[in-house]
Amino acid sequence: KMDVSFSHMQVDTEEFPLKKWLKCEQQALYNFTSLHKQYGDPKGIYELRASIAQLIAFNRGVRAHPEQIILGAGTQELMRTLTRLLPEETAYGLEEPGYQRVYQLLKQEKRNVITLPLDDKGIQAEGLRHYKPDVLFTTPSHQFPTGVIMPASRRMQLLNWASENPGRYIIEDDYDSEYKYDTDSIPSLQSLDRHEQVIYMGTFSKSLMPGLRLSYMVLPVQLIRSYQKMQPTFIQSCSTIQQISLKLFIDEGHYLRHTKRMKQVYKDKREACVAAFENVFGDNVTISGAKSGLHFVAAFRTEKTEAAIIAEAATQNIEVYSLSRFELESSTSHKRDPTLIIGFAGLHSEEMHPAVQALYKVIYDT
Ligand SMILES: Cc1ncc(COP(=O)(O)O)c(CN[C@H](CF)CCC(=O)O)c1O
Predict the structure, then answer these.
(1) 72 bridge partner residues
(2) Phi, psi (rounded to 5 degrees) for 330
(3) Separation of CA 76 and ligand 1 centre (Å)
(4) Best mutation site among 5, 13, 101 for ligand 1, i.e. most ligand atoms within 8 A of its Cβ?
(5) Which of 99, 166, 295, 315 is 20 to 30 A off residue 177, Cα-Cα?
(6) pLDDT at position 365, please?
(7) What is the mean pLDDT of the chain?
(8) d(CA 296, CA 274)
(9) Which residues have a Cβ under 8 Å from the Cβ of 58 and sit 6 or more positions away?
(10) Whose CA is nearest to atom 19 of ligand 1?
(11) Cβ-contact 177, 186 below 8 angstroms
């Protein structure tokens, strides 16, 4: 039986420059023991924050002083910190379908959560006026999970909405922004923001490896002030060794060389995967959200339900997730074709066809 994974969570680690990372890690371990023997700044090591500030200014036009950057071992960790900087009664608006791990985290923190409908440009602006969230969590670069890229016009509408009330914020989760195909990259919301109301969230999980647990956020000045008042109650969740390793890896140019190479690797994988689906499924599949990121969405013309497909796939050792996994409060599986999230980063090009064929057999019982 094939052990096949279409998981959107994985990256291609075979291309990761392990020797270069190890060299950085050895330097981090031996040459910075003074930093390892203490807890240090809860925001994370200043030198790394300075390197990240330069990197996101260059890559995404994000304007940030190192003192506005906070490291965290994952996006949930950063969201937990953020909920402590905002009033308890804050109403958080999330995309529907959307990032269920943030939804679950906000629920666990007993926060008000409102789910907002999407259209083909991302979050609907009129939804903001109707549902009235205070803080909007959005993934404009590659909407998670549908893959919609938010056009500049919609970005401006969101910024206008925020600017109507100083208590409003937009959390721009830019998790998948490194990889764009056949479309030029649209400037980050944070780079267009003129009122310090965008909280920019980034991660090295997709550009490097999720196992490193290295993520960060850029806070507007007034939230950094709130953070500083509460500073003694925070502690950094990323290891100092990993932080220094990352700093050296960025400063020595390995990061940019790696992401440049991975853009080509993932572009080829995406093309091979889309071609395999079109070849095997023909008109029975509709693909969307493939213009950026490490996954796309595939809707299938079949009588089978999503649940049945996922269950059957599991018996064939095929790991794949369905759209309903990301439907936070309203299920639409009864009024749409069964839809799967297809991650291609972990598949070898020569594996694509057989893997897609195995999925075909699951869906059409041949
Ligand atoms: C929308 C979105 N924002 C950020 C991350 C990065 O999170 P972190 O590694 O903790 O920095 C992901 C990563 N996505 C998860 C792992 F791939 C998906 C989980 C699932 O589907 O349960 C994501 O989807």
Answers:
(1) 215
(2) -125, 125
(3) 9
(4) 101
(5) 166
(6) 84
(7) 96
(8) 9
(9) none
(10) 9
(11) no
